[in-house]
Amino acid sequence: MSKKRNQLIDNIRIAMANSHSEQEALKVAVELIDGFSEDYNWTGFYMMGDGALNVGPYIGPETEHTRIELNRGICGAAVTSKKTVMVDDVLSDPRFLACSLSTRSEIVVPLMDGNTCIGEIDIDSNQPSYFTDEDREMLEEIADIIVARLRKISGTK
Ligand code: SME
Fold first, then answer.
1. What is the rounded CA–CA span in Å between residue 142 and residue 44?
2. CA–CA distance, 54 with 46 (Å, rounded to integer)
3. pLDDT at residue number 156
4. How remote is the CA of residue 3 from the centroid of ligand 1, in Å?
């Protein structure tokens, strides 16, 4: 992985170690991730609650999708498949729920706690086909670091 990508991962590790609530951890993580690329145009978390996804901290245009049922959207698809979903052209994906008219591609990375999805990282780009396997690998590693910290904060394991 590139130096810049490793640097972000290191910064996430440090920020997680210094975060003492879920909201604080997610807020600082979203700031760091969003700062990685000018072409990450909406960066945020959705967290599971009451059987659906609820929007958490985000940076980008305001979204009307504050709560997403699991059978809807690219966001729902990532939870139900328990896998990262990358969409090169959101306009040709019938699942896509638009938050901004300028979005062209999207990546959604589930936050997996063992076999349970507790939420996800969602990033939109205004560039078509913007996300690469390098983004996926980096964000999956970041997701694992965040989950480990949230687990510790909630004191469940
Ligand atoms: N595009 C997502 C919805 C979330 S907004 O982009 C912030 C989806 O299709 O599930």
1. 13
2. 5
3. 52
4. 30
Q: Give 153's Cβ-side CA count (13 Å radius).
A: 17
Candidate from 64, 106, 120 with most ligand 1 atoms within 8 A of CB, to mutate: 106
Q: Give the ranges where the chain is alpha helix by DSSP (H).
A: 3-17, 22-34, 73-81, 133-154
Residues of the chain with pLDDT under 50: 157
Chain-centroid distance, C-alpha 78: 10
Q: Please give the helix or strand (H or E) that residue 43 lies within, else none.
A: strand 42-49
pLDDT given for residue 1 in this prediction: 82
Q: Give pTM, 2 decimals.
A: 0.97
How is the chain split into domains, by residue range?
Answer: 3-154
The protein residue whose alpha carbon is closest to atom 5 in ligand 1 is: 99
CATH topology of domain 3-154: Beta-Lactamase (3.30.450)
